[in-house]
Amino acid sequence: MAKVKFLKEDVEIDVPVHANLKEFCLANNLKLYLFPENIVNCRGKGFCQLCRIKVDKPENLSAPTEREEASVAYEGDQYRLACQCTIAKDGDLQIITRPRRIWGWRDHPAHNQLITEEQKVFGF
Q1: Residue 25 phi/psi, 5° resolution?
Q2: Which residues face 61 on adjacent strands?
Q3: How far apart are CA 80 and CA 65, in angstroms?
Q4: DSSP readout, 90-110?
Q5: Which of 56, 68, 104, 115 is positioned for an S-S bond with 119, CB 3.0–4.6 A?
Q6: Mean pLDDT of the chain
Q7: How far is CA 109 from CA 2, 50, 81, 91, in A?
Q8: For the chain, where are the alpha helices, taking DSSP H only?
């Protein structure tokens, strides 16, 4: 069992190893989705990114799937999709449900690689 603390909900729960985080959250009445996301979502297929979470120790979760690599990998290894990951091993874990999203092209890591030195100086 892994001790998982959901920071926004201020709840600490023992989660069994190999449990899917989305299914576990919904079974324990943790607010993974808000209205209207609770009605309009991909039902665990990894397309909609509405079950996005931020974890403090990503090594305690299963390896990222192809869906996660395509959708949230640019934000860092701490961002995962709850529908695509499971608890991989025992240990403490802190999860932020519905974390603030990184918006826009200027926040994307590839943007810094493409801009020129002149653009960096003048803030374009």
Answers
A1: -60, -45
A2: 87
A3: 10
A4: SS-EEEEESPPP--SGGGSHH
A5: 115
A6: 81
A7: 32, 22, 20, 31
A8: 21-27, 66-71, 109-114, 117-122
Euclidean distance between CA atoms 10 and 121, whole angstroms: 43
Give the torsion sign (CA, 70, 72, 73, 74). Answer: positive
pTM score: 0.75
Specify the long-range contacts of residues 68-71, CB closer than 8 Å, at least 24 apart. 71/46
Question: β-pairing, 2-6 with 79-81?
Answer: unpaired
Using 50, 70 and 90 to split pLDDT, how confident is the model at 71?
confident
Whether residue 36 contacts residue 27, with contact meaning beta carbons closer than 8 Å, is answered with no
Quote the domain boundaries for residue 114.
Answer: 2-122
Per-residue pLDDT tens for 87-104? 988 888 999 888 876 666
Measured CA angle at 81 (ends 98, 69), to 5 deg? 130
* Per-residue CA distances from 82 to 23, 98, 106, 115 (Å): 8, 10, 26, 34
pLDDT, position 122: 55
Q: How many domains does the chain have?
A: 1
